[in-house]
Design goal:
Largest sheet of chain A: 7 strands, mixed
CATH class of the largest domain in chain A: Alpha Beta
Family (chains A, B): In the C-terminal section; belongs to the class-I pyridoxal-phosphate-dependent aminotransferase family.
Organism (chains A, B): Clostridium oceanicum
Oligomer: homodimer
CATH topology of the largest domain in chain A: Aspartate Aminotransferase, domain 2
Distance between the termini of chain A: 73 Å
Domain HTH gntR-type (chains A, B): 11-79
Number of helices of chain A: 18
Structural class of chain A: alpha/beta
Largest interface: A-B, 135 and 135 residues
Helix content of chain A: 40-55%
Strand order of the largest sheet of chain A: 4-12-11-10-9-5-6
Keywords (chains A, B): Aminotransferase, DNA-binding, Pyridoxal phosphate, Transcription, Transcription regulation, Transferase
Pfam families (chains A, B): Aminotran_1_2 (PF00155), GntR (PF00392)
Number of strands of chain A: 17
Number of domains of chain A: 3
Chain lengths: 482, 482
């Protein structure tokens, strides 16, 4: 019996030895009824304490892999499996249904050019994690653990962590929203929120309106629900009203409209207060519910107050508001929420439960504690300043170096550029070779348009890289023009 | 202008004051161009420092709600919303599709008798949180935070946290499973794992086999996918082979079989090693993939080693193994995994991304750190002992007090009881009035059978309550018999 085991310092030694012997037994390398070395022998052999070996053998005994005969030592149980050379080979590819195939096909991470180390990537619109206050986060964890202790680690409720919900209700009230006939459901971020709303409200082939372009993940989720969304063109202050009216004349039975009024993804447009009211009134008159994506509205740089559309509705229940701090704060913990009519939330809660019981209660509790102590306001003040600076520099450089038809974006974490008669994927090909990547705009369009456009995410880049990257993009465009 | 604000100690005072004024402005209680009190006046009025008021006003200015005129003070911006008396009332109930309606209807939490404080509840099979080692958990958090820092709070990958996956691959190898052509996807617990597998593999009306009775959440998920599962009767050592063969003769195109071989929910049966091989071979010969639910197999009390079915398959790829520590450890953080053929996991990964991007990276990292340090082995040793004791007492008392046709369960966190010609819901009605609740067995059956059965979850009850509760159940049965 050869014990060729390398011990490391990462986990208890008795478990390492136990698992090593376990695997030898299960793989038939030690056969049934074979005698293991005595604890003394093995402790000498492996140069560990005898107690460690005793623990390791106890562990194996607990696992039912060895038994001891008094005074004779430890022996291997009969756990042999004789099917090891089995050759059942299922062609899983052929078993995947249309939904699974579409999900893979629409998974852009798998099909777009990959980022490589050292590249300047304008692809991300994630927050810069260096702005996160880790010490405050740790403090929030320790505080909530001493309050909630083990309770927070056991099952919670599908609807969410009570104190977080109460906090968010106040938070929404502070945006001017009447929450009296509404409820909040906590979700795993925006993505789950939008997914379960469509699960509950739409059927294959239904009609949904959205801005065109719009958030690519929203397009993916709509397509995975068997829906080809109808896109409405954008003016510089949001949805083009004539296009909206035209589409409403031409189409019956529209199920809902999805809107991103603030720092719209991908264009960065902020819908004007006037237009918010206009759009709200038009959709109301057609009785079409609005799914309002509160995406990054917390990031407003300027001092202009713009209320969410949900604030316009008062006690009316036609708007479902999707919120998420995770777009700017701690995306890794995946917490978003849906604020909507109580009846609707009642159904969504059951769907949520059927999909994953609930969102991590630990994460909800930490976030609650973090928010309650006023850390978000401190963070957002700092973040706004830094992102505003990046945005202004990106805009300045884009205007200077990129010959564009239009440069959009009023702040937030990205700008959007439309070129004159040049395909952005051609630009991307050239830039990729020079170590610069960005997101081609076509993925944001619902009608295969936008091949002359692209989005530059600036949140995680240094000022230097923003400048350098935009110059390279500008040069690549000039090369193509020649 | 009346400042009727109650300050608390939970969050920074300047934010409380800022939010109070914000809400007054947004609700039209302070009108545009109105002058706010000077910072000095307000600090006197509210008995807080002048700096606090200065911060509050800065906050309101950042939000675009007030502006200052040099030397004249702070004034309210024009943010009025005139739609407040709006009355758009959508009947959301009528918009919910069949899926949403079914999810609500099948949501037993909403439709079963509710637990009330002071009751003895045998409903739960969650772990007893008092066994969790909170100090070790905290240590794991602090250790992983000092290693990963802010990185762990930003976006991760759909597939899961690399180190946790590597740990779990080793963990599965240690169960004797050949992982060489397989991959792991991290999910939000078993529920999400099973849900996204069905999303990817089945279509409405497909045939799925399962044990009868089986895990009620699995039944719910199958039904929500438009599937009426075909149940196979159980012997005391697992699936009845004749029934299985009969069903396979009578049915073509069966998509897959779902199995819970260890501490089967709800019966507590452990499928014998011999039967595992038999079932495996039969399904293999029909080319029907097995979804193996590793439910609580870590809880084996006795020293008998029983390999998961996935260990029988060697390099064959016909088995998809669903694992979860969360059933016995930290259910609140919702972490499970799918081990399966690499091609399959590739699709499931895209589906996972489309549903919620990924499972909390913080939670995955903490769990990894906790496991790596050998805490799980320590915990499970303690937990096994305590649950074994509860199980043995429950069994003893059930045999003594309950006149049953059959009492099932070989360990785990529950036992399952079949009565002679008595409906368990009648028993439940009586018990409820006496402050005892349990789970009626019918919810675990796929064919409306089992109305004479019920499940007793014992994990979270004290020994005293187990005794007391079982006596009350026994008495209630006797009362009905009279």
């Amino acid at each position: 019996m050869l014990f060729d085991i390398k011990l490391d310092k990462n986990s208890p030694v008795y478990i390492q030895i136990g698992n090593y012997i376990k695997s030898m037994i299960l793989n038939g390398m030690i056969r049934k009824e074979e005698k293991l070395p005595s604890t003394r022998e093995l402790s000498n052999m492996l140069k560990v304490s005898r107690n460690t070996i005793i623990y390791a053998y106890e562990y194996l005994q607990d696992e039912g892999l060895i038994y001891t005969k008094r005074g004779k030592g430890a022996f291997v149980c009969d756990v042999s499996i004789n099917l090891k050379k089995d050759n059942w080979n299922i062609k899983w590819d052929r078993l995947i249904n249309d939904y699974g195939k579409s999900a893979e096909k629409l998974d852009i991470i798998k099909h777009e050019v990959p980022w490589k180390k050292g590249m300047i990537s304008f692809k991300s619109i994630s927050p810069d994690e260096n702005l996160f206050d880790v010490e405050e986060f740790k403090k929030s964890f320790l505080n909530i653990m001493s309050l909630e202790r083990e309770k927070i680690l056991n099952y919670g409720y599908a609807i969410g962590y009570k104190y977080l919900i109460e906090y968010l209700i106040d938070y929404m009230k502070n945006k001017g929203i009447d929450t009296s006939n509404k409820k909040i459901l906590i979700t795993n971020g925006f993505t789950e929120a939008f997914d379960i709303i469509l699960d509950c409200l739409v059927n294959k082939g239904d009609k949904i309106l959205c801005e065109n372009p719009t958030h690519n993940t929203a397009i993916k989720i709509m397509k995975l629900h068997g829906i080809n969304p109808i896109g409405i063109d954008l003016d510089k202050d949001g949805v083009n009203i004539d296009s909206l009216k035209k589409v409403l004349e031409d189409n019956q039975n529209i199920k809902l409209m999805y809107l991103i009024p603030s720092y719209h993804n991908p264009t960065g447009i902020v819908m004007s207060p006037k237009k918010r009211i206009e759009v709200y009134n038009i959709l109301k008159s057609h009785n079409i519910p609005i799914i309002e994506d509160g995406f990054n509205e917390e990031l407003r740089y300027s001092g202009d107050h713009v209320s969410p559309i949900a604030a316009l509705a008062g006690k009316s229940n036609g708007i479902v508001y999707l919120g998420s701090f995770s777009k700017i704060l701690f995306p890794g913990i995946r917490i978003g929420w849906i604020l909507g009519d109580s009846d609707l939330i009642n159904y969504l809660e059951s769907v949520k439960r059927s999909k994953n019981i609930h969102t991590s209660f630990l994460d909800q509790a930490i976030l609650y504690q973090y928010l309650k102590e006023g850390n978000f306001e401190k963070y957002i003040k700092k973040a706004r300043k830094i992102y505003k600076n990046k945005y202004e520099i990106a805009l300045k450089y884009a205007r200077e170096y990129i010959e564009a038809e239009d440069i959009l974006g009023e702040g937030g974490l990205h700008i959007f550029i439309k070129l004159k008669d040049i395909k952005s994927r051609d630009v991307l090909d050239r830039c990729y070779k020079k170590g610069v990547v960005f997101t081609p705009g076509d993925i944001f369009y619902v009608d295969n348009k936008g091949d002359n456009s692209f989005r530059l995410g600036i949140s995680r880049l240094s000022i230097e890289d923003i400048k350098k990257g935009i110059k390279i993009i500008g040069e690549s465009i000039k090369e193509i023009k020649k």
